[in-house]
Amino acid sequence: MKYLFVLGRNIELSRREILSYFEKEEISVLGESLRGNGLLLDFEENIDSSIISFLGGVLSIGKVLVSSEFEDLKFNLEKAMIYAGEKNKLNYVLWDFSENYDFVLDYLQKRFKEEKLKATLKHLRDKMEMQEGEPVLIPSSKLLDEEYFIFTSEGEEHFGQIVSHCDYESIEKRDMEKPVRRESLAISPRLAKIMINLAGLKKGEMLLDPFCGVGTFLQEALLQGIKVFGVDKDSEAIEGAKKNLQWFGFDKENYSVVNFDSAKVEIPEVGGIATEPDLGQILKKIPTKEKAESTLREFDNLMIQVINNVKKNVSGKIVFTSPYIRIGKKRLNCGIENICESTGYSIVGEGIPEFRGNQIVGRMIWVLRK
Predict the structure, then answer these.
(1) Residues 94, 193: one domain?
(2) 352 and 208 together in one domain
(3) Are strands 156-165 and 58-69 parallel, antiparallel or unpaired?
(4) Is the pLDDT of residue 280 over 90?
(5) Which domain holds residue 224?
(6) pLDDT-derived band of residue 137, with 50, 70 and 90 as boundaries?
(7) Could you say which DSSP state residue 245 is in?
């Protein structure tokens, strides 16, 4: 069974998250194809499209209805159940991941006319800026009854329907309404979800966040049924984390938060780490190379101390952000080789940049394993 994942603005980060999620769920991916911000995956069986609630980097999930070579596409489209609704009016959109978009769109318009549906096409006119700066087109309307897609992969055309969407409004609402927020130091729930999935923890296992702040990683892990242990040396942040977790109504047996230095704290056995350490000062202007290098050296030393302190009780992966500091037209990164050499860990894949436009201090996301 083939499914389309419409990815968010950071394509490689979203791709790695999805593959990591299915790996830890022990769901085999038989094949993958990437086109723009569309990722087509092949599975042995149907998947539950509601998993989108556990993914931070996916806009929508679609199910392929028809796969065929272009010459047989129209014949196969005739057999597809394209619209199962009862209304005689239909607002629809066709996501474009194919050279044959116009052919499929023309077919849909003729078919809807034959079925006497008052079908209105909503165009892909809005733009989403991707991590590398290039824009991709997304629907300009939210008033849609159906969303279809066409995706070209290895000489085949795959036509299908979008079956689930990320509920960004509810995610943002609960993030804005929780009792304690730290605007300037906050990591988004979306990015926290992604990093938790990169850590590969299963339901019932325990996650360590050694720089938990007011608890964004903790809340997102708990929402996935993962137990958590949070540490922060800022007592005010710890009190904020406690208030937030109580506000969510989580069972206190599933979480612990302690006010301590993570370079010295004793922790229980945990399955992995997902965290955002201190990325240095909030900068309003581009720093000198010397200043940036000093910040990065301090970060390296901090991570080496913390990892070496907790690693004996960490069975799985360590996922963390590091400062990615702009100096002129380039950016400086942490000494990841030094961190690995000093802790006995190795890098899984490559670091993934996460920043916007002219943001001075961006993030690099790393996945390490023993």
Answers:
(1) no
(2) yes
(3) antiparallel
(4) no
(5) 171-369
(6) confident
(7) H
Bridge-based pairing of strands 318-327 and 227-232 is unpaired
Q: Which of 166, 186, 205 is the last residue of a domain?
A: 166
* Helix and strand numbers, DSSP H then E, in the chain: 9, 19
**Residue reference for tokens 């769920």:** 25
Q: Return the pLDDT at 218.
A: 98
User: Per residue in 102-131, pLDDT tens?
Assistant: 999 999 999 888 888 899 999 888 888 888
Which CATH number covers residue 281? Answer: 3.40.50.150
Selection from 116-125, 128-137, 288-297 with the highest mean pLDDT = 288-297
Q: Are residue 195 and residue 238 in the same domain, yes or no?
A: yes
DSSP 356: -
Helix axes 216-223, 189-199, angle to 10 degrees: 60
**pLDDT confidence band for 353 (50 / 70 / 90):** very high
Residue pair 224/44 in contact (Cβ under 8 Å)? The answer is: no
E strands, the chain, in order = 2-7, 29-35, 38-43, 58-69, 89-97, 118-121, 126-129, 135-138, 146-153, 156-165, 206-209, 227-232, 255-259, 272-275, 318-327, 330-332, 346-347, 352-354, 361-369
- Verify that 24 and 104 share a domain, yes or no: yes
Token pair 């996460």 is found at 354
Same domain, 121 and 178: no
Asked whether residue 122 falls in the same domain as residue 183, the answer is no
Residue-by-residue DSSP string for 305-317: HHHHHHGGGB-S-
Q: Are residues 156 and 199 in the same domain?
A: no
Q: Which amino acid appears at position 39 of this protein? A: L
Residues 195 and 155 in one domain: no
Phi, psi of 229 (to 5 degrees): -130, 115
Structural domains in the chain (count): 2
